[in-house]
Amino acid sequence: ASVAKLVLVVTFALELITTLWLASRLHWAYDLQWSDAAWSGLFHAVSAFNNAGFSLYPDSLMRFSSDAWILSPIMAAIIIGGIGFPVLHDLRNRFNHPQRWSLHTKLTLSGTAILLLGGWATLLLFEWSNPGTLGPMAVTDKILSASFASVSARTAGFNAIDIGALTRESWAVHYFLMFVGGGSAGTAGGVKVGTVAILALLVIAEIRGHTDTEAFGRRVGAQAQR
Predict the structure, then answer these.
(1) Rounded CA gap, 188 and 155, in Å?
(2) Residues 6 or more apart in contact with residue 156 via CB below 8 angstroms
(3) What does each C-alpha distance from 199 to 105, 150, 155, 209, 226 come to in angstroms?
(4) 73-99 pLDDT, tens digit each
(5) How are beta strands 218-219 and 214-215 bridged, if at all?
(6) Is the pTM higher than 0.85?
(7) What's the pLDDT tens digit per position in 122-173?
């Protein structure tokens, strides 16, 4: 019951906040009527939180590639929805005591951070001078668009730059991020961050010749490994 309540509260609250944020921005900055702005805000808030990636615009979100007020709340909704409700439940109960977080929470959060930062850095590297994507943009817009691409590649499916114009290296980065996906019991797809993290730990333990697989000072159980 506690987890079910958390799912309902987080879903409703986050989608409402994102809807209001997007609707306000669309109305005041893009002169949309309140009814149209509200509908667009609601649609994209739900689509982002559920990692669905559907957009009302034919270019997805490319028209907002330099607008952090549009892309930032969508990124936040994607990440929170995709991180998994077990992690959110753990954070709610033990937010001020990270040392008591479950191993699953620590692996998911650390893995998510590594994937997001790694995706952002590699996309910046490979697309910085690409005339079809980040090349013509100002530095701040490049950073924003690369961040959004890294977040959205985790199964959300939106795009603020032309995916067809990416370099092959960036496509490979997208393939990997899409394959991994998000956290367990969340709205993202993929094989899940925790799965990939445990596989990586198993490989590291084998290379080092260790009989036990450990993370954050804890042993990964045989059942989790299997």
Answers:
(1) 6
(2) 48, 51, 52, 53, 78, 82, 188
(3) 16, 22, 20, 15, 10
(4) 999 999 999 999 999 999 999 999 999
(5) antiparallel
(6) yes
(7) 999 999 999 999 999 999 999 999 999 999 998 899 999 999 999 999 999 9
